[in-house]
Specification:
Blueprint (H helix, E strand, L loop, with lengths): L1 E2 L1 H4 L10 E2 L12 E5 L7 H14 L5 E7 L9 H11 L6 H10 L3 E7 L4 E7 L1
Parallel strand pairs: 1-2, 3-4
Antiparallel strand pairs: 4-6, 5-6
Length: 128
Amino acid sequence: MFDLPKVIDKVIVTNIKKISGSFFDKIPNQSEAIVLSRVLHDWNDKKAKLILKNCFEALPNNGTLYVIENCSDKIKIDLSLLSLNMSAMCESHERTSAQYISICENAGFQFNSETKLNELQTILLFKK
């Protein structure tokens, strides 16, 4: 598990390796896969691209990136208020699956598949 020190300090699970750090800095290359669950939607495109670039550099060849997000084009409810909230709070917005695919591909990843988890969340799978 890789997260900010204040998050890692609160994790009570003991059977996983915990590494403190920031996605905006170099990410240790210690795994074959990275899961970003509800991370990218918090950040504007510039910062999201930096996170993805750091993920790309941390993964080995053929490594896997899982992006789990609410894709605005896959949800049957109006997300305009949520997107407005994201804009005001985080300088970000809700993205479509095509927008997530585009920013991930711009970071060097190759899109592999898309799976709807539930009414809100979609998993986008990418390979390095």
